[in-house]
């Protein structure tokens, strides 16, 4: 007889102490991730929406409209948002419309009550006109008056082709003018400035036939280039574009003011995708215009990249050397403990304090001393005694050096003791052990600190406002003119560009989309820089793999 099978006793789950706290921390982590994803999604949605071409609507207002419209009973523009406003305790729906034509209407945006709108339509022949000044314009094409005096009416079958060809010609001529004024005339001005400094080195009354001849040749070249630029500008404005506003008024625009003209209501899906990438390319690779609210942000991208790179090159050696001394050589004394306390406290100092220090120490003291020693002939015009990309990079390096020191110390401490002892047993000195054994193994941890420093430094704005960042920089800090890297030049920065658009723009409504787009671009740039450092760290981690890493 077999014994009857017995059912296993029921499993009793024992609740461990602190388990609710584990669930609580997981909920907190999930909430944090959701907030991060939501924030990035909001920025990305609004940022990419800037480049997508929108339909232009024609709104007919009722006869007794309460909404004030500078264009009269007909409004032509792009609906940017819809919301509710409180009137006498009642929520009234209204829309915001970008009507453009700020030179004609005095404002670029209007709010209209939806109850005042009698009809809406999207006329296919309406044009979206990008201009160099006064922002975009919306209207209907009337005619094109060419330089030879011929007139092409908007009803002509080749009107759009002739207009697009004229805009392409204007763009090429505008590039020539920029090349002459910024590059060639800029070099002549630099050469004339050098001659002026050479004259200062001579005693009064000294004959200078060579300098006079060179200055005369440079002046003649300058006059020829200026005349050529003036001639090109006259050619730019020889043609005219006539368009009609929503209220029937005809406007004449010099062709040199045209940047791009599209008929957004005629674009299909593929054409809208092409327009999206065109707008994105303009944003990434062209210079800003209209108080930074239009055009591109290439100088700000370039300035942010150069400043972050210089900061990384400055902070890494100082942070690593300080960490090596504190971990490998310094004894546990009152002095080293005070140094560690100071490093930890520096990590919590507000960034604006570092900006004030950088202004006083780097700009006024160090830069002023450099000017007196090496650029005395240029005084009282400062060379290094004013804000520049070098002082901005050093200020941010000083601000982020505690992060690199702490991360490097942890990386050095994580190297197995057996590796050090084996190296010393083979006859290597302490420095040889650190240089050839410890540091290569600690490089991944050092790069972790550098990644954190880059992430913080690239997004800082407050200290940069004191040590070199500007709203609009005429030249880049890195170019093809000797010495190639001009550390004394001021620069543009994406973080300051966001601040300028959001709080200093004369047209805050027009600047809102650019704020989102620039914010998204700054996040992408920081992620790209960090991703490059992370890939390098992983490669070095595989190369110097130990039991710790």
Q: What structural category characterises the helix and strand content?
A: alpha+beta
Helix content: 55-70%
Distance, first to last CA: 61 Å
How much of the residues is beta strand, in percent? 5-15%
Average residue pLDDT: 86
CATH class of the largest domain: Mainly Alpha
**What does the main sheet amount to?**
6 strands, antiparallel
The CATH architecture category of the largest domain equals Orthogonal Bundle
* Fourth-level CATH superfamily of the largest domain: MetI-like
Shape: flat
| Total domain units | 3
Comma- or semicolon-separated keywords:
56% helix; 549 residues; 3 domains; flat; alpha+beta; six-stranded antiparallel sheet; five-stranded antiparallel sheet; MetI-like fold
Quick overview:
This protein is an alpha+beta fold and 549 residues long. Helices cover 56% and strands 14% of the residues. The mean pLDDT is 86.
How does this structure look, described?
With 549 residues, the protein is of the alpha+beta class. It has 3 domains: 49-142 and 243-285, no CATH class; 147-238; 298-543, MetI-like fold, CATH 1.10.3720.10. The chain is 56% helix and 14% strand. It is built from 14 helices and 13 strands. The strands form 3 sheets. Strands 6, 7, 8, 9, 10 and 11 form a 6-stranded antiparallel β-sheet that branches. Strand 6 and strand 7 (137-145) form a beta hairpin. Helix 6 crosses helix 9, helix 10 (417-425) runs antiparallel to helix 11 (430-459) and helix 11 (430-459) packs antiparallel against helix 14 (508-543). It is flat. The mean pLDDT is 86.
List the helices and strands and how they pair.
Elements lengths: L18 H31 L7 E5 L12 E14 L2 E9 L3 H4 L3 E5 L3 E5 L4 E6 L5 E9 L5 E3 L5 H43 L7 H28 L3 E5 L5 E5 L3 E5 L6 H17 L2 E2 L4 E2 L2 H32 L4 H13 L4 H24 L14 H26 L2 H9 L4 H30 L4 H4 L26 H11 L3 H36 L6
Antiparallel strand pairs: 1-2, 1-5, 2-3, 3-4, 6-7, 6-11, 7-8, 7-9, 9-10, 12-13
Helix pairs in contact: 1-14, 3-4, 6-9, 6-11, 8-9, 9-11, 10-11, 11-14, 13-14
């Amino acid at each position: 007889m077999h014994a009857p099978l017995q059912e296993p006793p029921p499993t009793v789950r024992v609740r461990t102490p602190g388990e609710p706290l584990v669930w609580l921390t997981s909920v907190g982590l999930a909430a944090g991730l959701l907030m991060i994803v939501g924030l990035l999604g909001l920025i990305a949605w609004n940022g990419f929406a800037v480049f997508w071409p929108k339909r232009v609507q024609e709104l007919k207002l009722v006869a007794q409209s309460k909404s004030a419209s500078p264009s009269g009973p007909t409004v032509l523009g792009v609906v940017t948002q819809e919301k509710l406003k409180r009137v006498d305790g009642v929520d009234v729906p209204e829309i915001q419309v970008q009507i453009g034509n700020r030179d004609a209407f005095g404002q670029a945006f209007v709010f209209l009550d939806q109850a005042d709108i009698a009809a809406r339509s999207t006329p296919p022949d309406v044009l979206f006109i990008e201009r160099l000044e006064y922002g975009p314009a919306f209207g209907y094409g009337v005619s094109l008056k060419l330089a030879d005096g011929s007139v092409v009416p908007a009803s002509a079958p080749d009107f759009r082709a002739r207009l697009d060809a004229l805009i392409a010609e204007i763009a090429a001529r505008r590039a020539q003018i920029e090349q002459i004024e910024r590059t060639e005339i800029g070099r002549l001005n630099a050469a004339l400035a050098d001659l002026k400094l050479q004259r200062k080195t001579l005693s009064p009354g000294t004959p200078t036939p060579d300098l006079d001849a060179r200055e005369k040749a440079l002046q003649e070249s300058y006059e020829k280039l200026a005349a050529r630029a003036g001639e090109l500008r006259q050619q730019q404005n020889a043609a005219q574009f006539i368009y009609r506003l929503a209220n029937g008024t005809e406007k004449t625009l010099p062709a040199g003011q045209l940047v791009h003209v599209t008929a957004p209501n005629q674009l299909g899906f593929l054409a809208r995708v092409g327009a999206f990438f065109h707008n994105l390319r303009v944003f990434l690779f062209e210079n800003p215009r209209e108080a930074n609210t239009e055009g591109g942000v290439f100088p700000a991208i370039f300035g942010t990249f150069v400043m972050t790179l210089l900061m990384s090159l400055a902070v890494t050696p100082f942070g690593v050397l300080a960490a090596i001394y504190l971990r490998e050589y310094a004894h546990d004394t009152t002095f080293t403990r005070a140094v560690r306390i100071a490093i930890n406290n520096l990590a919590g100092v507000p960034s604006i304090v570092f900006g004030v220090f950088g202004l006083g120490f780097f700009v006024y003291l160090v830069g002023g001393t450099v000017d007196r020693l090496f650029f005395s002939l240029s005084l009282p015009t400062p060379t290094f005694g004013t804000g520049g990309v070098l002082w901005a990079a050093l200020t941010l390096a000083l601000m982020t050096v505690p992060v690199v020191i702490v991360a490097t110390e942890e990386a050095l401490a994580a190297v197995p003791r057996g590796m050090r002892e084996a190296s010393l047993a083979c006859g290597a000195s302490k420095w040889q052990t650190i240089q050839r054994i410890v540091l290569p193994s600690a490089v991944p941890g050092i790069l972790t600190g550098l990644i954190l420093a880059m992430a913080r430094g690239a997004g800082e704005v407050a200290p940069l406002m004191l040590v070199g960042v500007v709203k609009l920089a005429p030249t880049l800090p890195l170019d093809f003119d000797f010495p190639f890297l001009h550390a004394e030049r001021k620069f543009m920065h994406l973080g300051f560009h966001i601040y300028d658009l959001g709080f200093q723009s004369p047209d805050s409504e027009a600047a809102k989309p650019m704020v989102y787009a620039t914010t998204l671009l700054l996040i992408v740039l920081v992620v790209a820089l960090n991703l490059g450092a992370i890939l390098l760290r992983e490669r070095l981690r595989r190369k110097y793999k130990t039991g710790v890493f």
